[in-house]
Design goal:
Length: 231
């Protein structure tokens, strides 16, 4: 899924690396509105990018998987407007954000790859927003499961059609803009029509027919692969 580093890129990114850290489930990686002095690569585990509103409600904006970059927008804009929390135990590579500008001067192909990856992530976000705004509860849950299944499959993290989803029902509700009651009903409907089954508080997902689930929920894969390498 990710392209390989060139030798020069590898040496350059090696000089950007500040640390390699491990965090427990629930710990904060980035606080909302913090200045972006570091960029992270999620090496192991799952995390969520979310925004907390003035009334205390929280919306999960995206679910982060191994290989995803964390904190790039905050490092460019000075503040990301969102927080990132570990869903499971995670390990992250910490890169010096102050050296990001030098990537564009000295490693233009890597810079273009980073831009390409960000544009693909924006395309994913647009598609997800359209589903949240226009689809019913069952389609929203189906779309989330389809998207996660495809991303895990591409990274070699899903063996067959069953995989672990480290979100409880409340977190699923935050990810798709529904109440917990509606999430439970949607999961029951997906099971009854034979598209997907989610079991347990911390879920085990079994997608009986990924293609049928994708058609049902309106999910479609990105048209091309990520070009940036795993940092």
């Amino acid at each position: 899924m990710f392209r390989q580093f060139s030798y020069g890129e590898l040496r350059f990114v090696g000089r950007m690396k500040r640390a390699h850290i491990a965090l427990a489930a629930g710990e904060e990686v980035i606080a909302q509105d913090d200045a972006g002095d570091a960029i992270y690569t999620l090496r192991e585990g799952w995390a969520v990018r979310c925004r907390t509103l003035s009334n205390g409600a929280r919306q999960i904006l995206d679910i982060l998987l191994p290989g995803d970059l964390v904190g790039l927008s905050a490092s460019v804009l000075g503040s990301g407007g969102h927080s990132v929390h570990a869903l499971t135990a995670v390990t992250l590579c910490v890169l010096d954000a102050k050296k990001l500008a030098a990537v564009f001067r000295r490693q233009p192909e890597l810079a273009l790859s980073l831009l390409h990856g960000r544009l693909q992530e924006e395309e994913r976000a647009d598609a997800r927003l359209a589903v949240l705004g226009q689809m019913g509860a069952t389609q929203r849950i189906g779309y989330l499961l389809s998207d996660l299944h495809e991303r895990l499959r591409e990274r070699g993290l899903a063996q067959g059609r069953a995989w672990r989803l480290p979100l409880d029902r409340s977190q699923l509700a935050e990810a798709v803009g529904l109440s917990k009651v509606h999430v439970m009903r949607a999961l029951r409907t997906l099971r009854e029509v034979g598209l997907a089954e989610v079991r347990g508080r911390r879920c085990t997902v079994n997608i009986s027919n990924p293609h049928r689930l994708a058609r049902f929920s309106g999910y479609s894969r990105l048209r091309s692969k990520f070009l940036y390498p795993i940092l």
